[in-house]
C-alpha cells in the first residue's frame, strides 16, 4: 500500500507541475481543484459499481452451486432406488418368456391373416397384372406387383424371424410366388422398351415415360428400405435389390451406342462419300437428340437424375468409341481429312455441340477430344504420307498430259493478254489450293505442313519439267518439221515459268505466316533459279531455231556475192522480225531477255563472218564499198532491234557500234594510220585477241605480214583500259587456225 501511495503522490505531483508551468496559471488553481474533484468522484462511482456487480455475480454463483449440490443428492438417491427395483424384477421378467413367445407367434399369425387374401388370390392378381401390362397400364400393373411382393416379403420375413434356418418353408413360399418373378421380368421388359424409345416417346406420349420413371423411383425406394432392414435384421427378399435405375441408364447407354453405330448406311465400295455421309447423319442425329433431351426429356425425370448431362456423357462416350473404330480402319487420304475435320472442328462448332440452344449446359471447352492426340498424330502422319504419294502422282500425270499437248497441231491457248500458255500451272496450283483449303479446315499446323510439302514437291517437279523441256527440244532437232507448233509451245513453256513464279508467291502470301517465310527462302530461291534456267534454255532453243533458218544467209555475209549486192541482211532482218511476231507472245521479263540475246547473237554472227576471212578486199575501192555496206547493215540491225525493243529499255546502240567500228578499220585509206585505228578499236573492245586483229587485217587485204606482226606486238605492249560497262563479245568468236598467220609467240 505504501508503494502504491508513493506512486499516486508522484503522479499527482507530475500532473500539478504540468498544470502550473506559467505564473498566470496560478489564478486557475481553484478551477483545477474543482475539475480534479469531479474526476475523482466519477472514478470512485464507477469503481463502486464494478465491485457491486462482481459481488452480485458471486452471490448468484454460490446460490446455483448450492442448488446443484441438492439436485445431485436427489439423483443419487433415485439411482439407488432404481437399482433396488431392477434387482427385485429380474425374476419376474424371466417368468414372462412364454408371454413373449406368444406375442411373436401372434404377430406372425396376424401377418398371415392380413396377407391371406393376397395369398389365395396370387394367380388371379398375376393374370390381372399381365392384362394391365398388355394394355400399357404400367402404373396399375406395378401396383399389383408391389402388393404381391409385399405379401411374399412379409411372410418370408416372419418365417425368417421364427426360424431363419428353415429353408424348406422359405423355398415353399418362394415357389408359390414364382409367377410373380416372371411378372416382374415382363414389366421390366416393357419399361426398357419405353426407355429405349424415350426420345420418341417423350414427343408422342410423355405421360407414358413419366409413368416408367415413377415405377423406377418406387422400386428404388423399396430397394433402399430393404437394404436398411437387412442391416438391422440380416433378411433380404429374393430379387432385391432390383437396381432398376442403374439398369435404366445401362439401357439408355446401349441405345445411344446402337443409334450411333446404326447411322452408317453405305460402304466405300457402294459410295465413295460414305464417311462424309455417315458423319453428317451422326451430327444431325446427335444434335436433334440432345435438343429433345434438353427441352422435353429433362422435364420427365426428377432433377437428381441429371438426365441431360448423363445423356450428353453417353453420347460423347459412344462417339469417342465410334471415332476410334473409324480411325483404326484403313482410311484413304480424303477420308482422314473428313474424320479429323469432324472430330477437331465440326464436333465443337455451332453446327453441333456449340449450338446456342444447347448452352449453357454444354460447354465445348470442357469436352474432351473424341480421339486421343496420339491417334490424331498417327492419322496426320498417314495423311501426309498418302498426300505425298498422291501429289507426286498428280504432278507426274499433269506433266504427261501437258507433254501430249506439246505435239498437237493446233496452237496453245492464250490468256487474256494474248500470251501463250498451257493448263499445267493452273492444274498444279488448283491441286495445291484444294489440298491447302482442306488442311486449313483441320488445323493451322497441318496447313503449314501441307504448304511445305507442296513447295518441296514443286521443287522436284520443276527439275523434271526442265528435263522434259530439254527432251522436247532434242526431239524437235531430229526433225524440225515436227512438232508443227514447236515454237508456240516452247513459248508457252517459257510463259509457264513466269506463271509458276507468280503462283508460288501468291500461294505463300495466302497460306504462309510471315514468321515462317524465312524457313522457305532458300527453297523459293532454288525454284526461281530452276524456272529461270527453264526459261533461259527455252529462249535459247527458240533463238537456235531462228539461227538455223538464218544459217544460209549468214554464210553469204562477207563473201563475193555479198559484196556484189546480196540481200542476205535484209532477209535476216525479215526472218528475225517474223519470228519475233510469235515471240511477242512471250511474257516479260523473258521477252526483253529474248530481244537482247537475239541482238547480241546477230552481231556475234556478223562479226564471226568477218573473222572467217571469206573475202579479202583487193583495193581501196572494194574496202570502201564493203565498209559502207557494213555500216548500212549495222544501221539495219539497229533499226530492227530498236523496233523489237520498244518499251523494253534495251540499248540498241552499243552492239551495232562494234560492226561500225570494224567497218572504220576496213574503210581506212591511209595504211600509216592503221595502227592508230586498230588501237582505238582495241581500247573500246579490250577482249579482242591477236587472231581477231590478224583476221581483220587479212580482210583489208593491204597489210603485209610484217605490218600485221608489228601492229599486234605494239598493241600487246600498250596499256589496256577496259570500259567497265562493256560486255565482252569477241571471246565468243573463234578465228579458224588454219588460215591464221603464225604470229602468236
From TrEMBL:
Q: Which GO terms describe its molecular function?
A: SNARE binding
Similarity comment = Belongs to the SEC6 family.
The record ties this protein, via Gene3D superfamilies, to:
1.10.357.50, Exocyst complex component Sec6, C-terminal domain
Q: What is this protein called?
A: Exocyst complex component 3
**Keyword Transport on entry:** yes
The terms describing its cellular component in GO are:
exocyst; Golgi apparatus; growth cone; membrane; midbody; perinuclear region of cytoplasm
Cite the entry's keywords alphabetically. Answer: Acetylation, Cell projection, Cytoplasm, Exocytosis, Golgi apparatus, Protein transport, Transport
Q: State whether it acts alone or in a complex, and with which partners, per the record.
A: The exocyst complex is composed of EXOC1, EXOC2, EXOC3, EXOC4, EXOC5, EXOC6, EXOC7 and EXOC8. Interacts with EXOC3L1. Interacts with BIRC6/bruce. Interacts with MYRIP. Interacts with SLC6A9.
| Cellular compartment(s) | Cell projection, Growth cone; Cytoplasm, Perinuclear region; Golgi apparatus; Midbody
In terms of superkingdom, the source organism counts as Eukaryota
Q: Extract one GO BP annotation from the record.
A: exocyst localization
| InterPro entries assigned | EXOC3/Sec6, EXOC3/Sec6_C
Q: Which Pfam families does the entry link to?
A: Sec6
Q: Where's it mainly located?
A: other
Task of the protein = Component of the exocyst complex involved in the docking of exocytic vesicles with fusion sites on the plasma membrane.
Amino acid at each position: 500500500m505504501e508503494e502504491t501511495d508513493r506512486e499516486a503522490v508522484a503522479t499527482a505531483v507530475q500532473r500539478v507541475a504540468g498544470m502550473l508551468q506559467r505564473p498566470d496559471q496560478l489564478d486557475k488553481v481553484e478551477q483545477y481543484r474543482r475539475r480534479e474533484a469531479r474526476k475523482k468522484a466519477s472514478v470512485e462511482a464507477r469503481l463502486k459499481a464494478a465491485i457491486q456487480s462482481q459481488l452480485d455475480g458471486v452471490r448468484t454463483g454460490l446460490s446455483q452451486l448450492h442448488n446443484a449440490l441438492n439436485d445431485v443428492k436427489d439423483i443419487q438417491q433415485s439411482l439407488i432406488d432404481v437399482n433396488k427395483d431392477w434387482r427385485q424384477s429380474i425374476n419376474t421378467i424371466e417368468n414372462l418368456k412364454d408371454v413373449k413367445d406368444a406375442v411373436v407367434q401372434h404377430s406372425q399369425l396376424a401377418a398371415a391373416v392380413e396377407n391371406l387374401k393376397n395369398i389365395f388370390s396370387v394367380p388371379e392378381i398375376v393374370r390381372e397384372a399381365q392384362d394391365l401390362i398388355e394394355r400399357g397400364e404400367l402404373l396399375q400393373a406395378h401396383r399389383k406387383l408391389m402388393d404381391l411382393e409385399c405379401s411374399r416379403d412379409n411372410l418370408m420375413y416372419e418365417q425368417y424371424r421364427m426360424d431363419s434356418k428353415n429353408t424348406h418353408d422359405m423355398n415353399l413360399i418362394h415357389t408359390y410366388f414364382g409367377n410373380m418373378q416372371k411378372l416382374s421380368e415382363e414389366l421390366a421388359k416393357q419399361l426398357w422398351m419405353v426407355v429405349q424409345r424415350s426420345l420418341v416417346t417423350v414427343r408422342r406420349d410423355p405421360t407414358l415415360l413419366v409413368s416408367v420413371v415413377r415405377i423406377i423411383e418406387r422400386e428404388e425406394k423399396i430397394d433402399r428400405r430393404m437394404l436398411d432392414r437387412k442391416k438391422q435384421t440380416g433378411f433380404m427378399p429374393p430379387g432385391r435389390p432390383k437396381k432398376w435405375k442403374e439398369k435404366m441408364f445401362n439401357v439408355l447407354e446401349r441405345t445411344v451406342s446402337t443409334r450411333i453405330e446404326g447411322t452408317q448406311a453405305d460402304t466405300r465400295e457402294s459410295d465413295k462419300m460414305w464417311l462424309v455421309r455417315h458423319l453428317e447423319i451422326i451430327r444431325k442425329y446427335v444434335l436433334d437428340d440432345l435438343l429433345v433431351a434438353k427441352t422435353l426429356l429433362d422435364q420427365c425425370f426428377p432433377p437428381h437424375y441429371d438426365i441431360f448431362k448423363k445423356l450428353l456423357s453417353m453420347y460423347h462416350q459412344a462417339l469417342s468409341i465410334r471415332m476410334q473404330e473409324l480411325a483404326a480402319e484403313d482410311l484413304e487420304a480424303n477420308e482422314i481429312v473428313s474424320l479429323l475435320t469432324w472430330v477437331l472442328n465440326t464436333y465443337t462448332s455451332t453446327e453441333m455441340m456449340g449450338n446456342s440452344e444447347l448452352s449453357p449446359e454444354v460447354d465445348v471447352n470442357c469436352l474432351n477430344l473424341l480421339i486421343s492426340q496420339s491417334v490424331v498424330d498417327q492419322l496426320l502422319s498417314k495423311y501426309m504420307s498418302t498426300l505425298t504419294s498422291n501429289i507426286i502422282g498428280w504432278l507426274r500425270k499433269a506433266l504427261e498430259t501437258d507433254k501430249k499437248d506439246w505435239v498437237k497441231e493446233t496452237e496453245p491457248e492464250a490468256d487474256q493478254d494474248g500470251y501463250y500458255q498451257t493448263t499445267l500451272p493452273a492444274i498444279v496450283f488448283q491441286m495445291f489450293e484444294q489440298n491447302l483449303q482442306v488442311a486449313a479446315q483441320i488445323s493451322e499446323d497441318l496447313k503449314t505442313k501441307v504448304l511445305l510439302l507442296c513447295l518441296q514437291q514443286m521443287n522436284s517437279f520443276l527439275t523434271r519439267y526442265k528435263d522434259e523441256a530439254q527432251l522436247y527440244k532434242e526431239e524437235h532437232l531430229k526433225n524440225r518439221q515436227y512438232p508443227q507448233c514447236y515454237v508456240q509451245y516452247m513459248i508457252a513453256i517459257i510463259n509457264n515459268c513466269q506463271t509458276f513464279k507468280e503462283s508460288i508467291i501468291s500461294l505463300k502470301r495466302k497460306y504462309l505466316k510471315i514468321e515462317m517465310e524465312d524457313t522457305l527462302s532458300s527453297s523459293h530461291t532454288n525454284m526461281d533459279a530452276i524456272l529461270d534456267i527453264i526459261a533461259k534454255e527455252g529462249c535459247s532453243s527458240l533463238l537456235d531455231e531462228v539461227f538455223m533458218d538464218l544459217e544460209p544467209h549468214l554464210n553469204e555475209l562477207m563473201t563475193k556475192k555479198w559484196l556484189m549486192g546480196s540481200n542476205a541482211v535484209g532477209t535476216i532482218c525479215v526472218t528475225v522480225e517474223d519470228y519475233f511476231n510469235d515471240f511477242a507472245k512471250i511474257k516479260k521479263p523473258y521477252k526483253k531477255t529474248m530481244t537482247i540475246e537475239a541482238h547480241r547473237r546477230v552481231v556475234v554472227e556478223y562479226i564471226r563472218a568477218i573473222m572467217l576471212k571469206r573475202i579479202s578486199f583487193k583495193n581501196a575501192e572494194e574496202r570502201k564499198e564493203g565498209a559502207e555496206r557494213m555500216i548500212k547493215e549495222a544501221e539495219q540491225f539497229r533499226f530492227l532491234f530498236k523496233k523489237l525493243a520498244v518499251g523494253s529499255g534495251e540499248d540498241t546502240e552499243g552492239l551495232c557500234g562494234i560492226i561500225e567500228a570494224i567497218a572504220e578499220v576496213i574503210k581506212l585509206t591511209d595504211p600509216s594510220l592503221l595502227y592508230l585505228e586498230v588501237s582505238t578499236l582495241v581500247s573500246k573492245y579490250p577482249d579482242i585477241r591477236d587472231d581477231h586483229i590478224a583476221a581483220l587485217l587479212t580482210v583489208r587485204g593491204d597489210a603485209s605480214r610484217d605490218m600485221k606482226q608489228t601492229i599486234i606486238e605494239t598493241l600487246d605492249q600498250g596499256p589496256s583500259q577496259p570500259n567497265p560497262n562493256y560486255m565482252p563479245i569477241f571471246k565468243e568468236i573463234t578465228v579458224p587456225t588454219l588460215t591464221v598467220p603464225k604470229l602468236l609467240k
